[in-house]
Amino acid sequence: MDHVTNSSVSAPAIDIEAGEPHNILRAYLVLGFFVVVSLWTFSIDTRYVYLSAYLWFGFIYGMALQYGRFCMASAIRDLFAVGVPRMAVGIMIAIVLFSLVSAYVTAVGKSTFHASPIGLYSVIGGLVFGVGMVFTGGCASGSLYKTGEGSIAALLVVLSLAFTQAIFVDVGGWLNHLVPAAWTASAATKNMPASLTVTDGWFDQFTAGYIWDLHATTLGDLIKFSNPFAAAFVGNALLNSLLPAAVILALIYVRWYRKSYLRDKSVIYRGWRTELAGYWSMITASRRTAIAGLILGVAAGLHMWVMQGLQQHFNILNVGELLKAMGHTSGLSIQDTVFDPGYFYITTQEAQGAGWVLQKLGFNEMSNIFFGLDNGLPNPILNPVLWMSFALIGGSAVMALLNNEFKLKWPSAEIAIWAVFGGILMGLGARIGLGCNIGAFFATVTNGDPSGWLFGLGMTLGGFIGVKFFNWWIERKMAKEVVGLEL
Amino acid sequence: MAVKFEKVSDGNYRLDVQGYVCPHPQLYTKKAMEKLKQGEILELVFDNPSSGESILAMCQTDGNEIVEQTRQTGNAMRWRIRKG
Q1: Which positions ≥6 away from A356 have C-beta within 8 Å?
Q2: Strands, DSSP E only, in A232-333?
Q3: Are B41 and B10 in contact (CB under 8 A)?
Q4: Interface confidence (ipTM) of the complex
Q5: CB A71 to CB B35 under 8 A?
Q6: Which of A8, A82, A400 sits opposite B54 (nearest CB)?
Q7: For chain A, which terminus, N or C, has the lower number of CB atoms within 10 Å?
Q8: What is the pLDDT of residues A236-295, one digit of tens each?
Q9: CB contact, 8 Å: B31 with chain A?
Q10: Predicted structure pTM score
């Protein structure tokens, strides 16, 4: 039993402890598995290096997320629920760093990023997703890394959001009655193949009749800089990422950090110097979160560079072309594509996994735009982006094992219900918002795409609503627990 | 599995949220600390690592003092928090 006694409230968080021998062995086994996958696939065909690139960046993301307890649900929830800004600050640090690396990658023509359309759908999707992630206790990436810590509840969240998406993108029936006539009319004019039945199904008509009619752009392109470095660094990074992040950090400082900082008896107030020192103190308050933010930011930028480099090396625009050339034609979309964002992404590949299972069970999951036209349903073993998620779980497991934090935990019925219900909301929100906290927020705001801030706004509002509900729920439960207690 | 919040002795309370994941442990801890008087001690037992970071920061923000941190078998954490 480890024992630490602190004499001050400013005591550091529990430091990383050396892993116990059996946990270190387990960590090596997990690491070894992914090494074997990489080497084995490479020995079959060197073009599988594309799969390995996604895999190892996923592994790095998993390690960094677990190390920093990096979770956007935590960021929003802890601000509103318990007044703790640590995680929100860490995410802003990651945004700043990712945006700078992205700007360089974009300026030299190595970016794989595609902007999302700008519209109200981002706010609505973010709101639904935000409520869900507070209920589950983790965002999409947070649930993956917590699965790596051994949380079966987090695994339930991942499965719930995956199957919800796979079902939601394909269902029609009574949901067709919720589709505005304008969407149906617009979708019908898109001349899609009959096999996609684009006027049947809510999501198909939302995509073809609404999303495709919206305009997508980055701030750098919108301002029309002639110099690519100016477009990337001033338009995308400075205006769309750095300034908004600095303003958000200032708001967090004033609302959630300043009071406790100035309460410290060692702080002598000297006007703006003290305020700036407090601002910096807030940014550096959690070493682990800041380091995780730094690693995530840099790795996410490098990830785009590597994927673009591989696409140029193989002379492809989408990994579906590579799979076809390797003889894997099953599960490709009608355009011979599969999901291949080229950067850090979470929800779509899980939806593919669930869709593949449903397809095997006899449902026709390829009769919609999401799978049939765009993302395909490749065998999960051959799906490079899904390997990013598998490896993210693995990277998190390795880090948790090395810190003696891995524990297989089965949820109670109450926690399982929250996980499944919240996961359903997250799945719906992720599809309506065209992504999750990573694909529709983190990867977009850092690449000059203003739509990410709309998703972030919705996610924050949803988080606030979720916290209000949870506060009521826990007050109600506490009232039952403390009956008879003299407080 | 249920949350256990009980009085151990005068000025000493125990909150057991083992088995609960975010956000339950930190929210229960906040609610429990609000019910304590200044100087009273809450013994918190939890096994969700992510919650520890939030609870630590919450104590710093609210001026509560973590006087003892113990890691028990099975990865459970036992923290003693003095209301500030």
Answers
A1: A331, A365, A377, A378, A379, A380
A2: none
A3: no
A4: 0.82
A5: no
A6: A82
A7: N
A8: 999 999 999 999 999 999 999 998 889 887 888 999 999 999 999 998 887 787 788 889
A9: yes
A10: 0.91
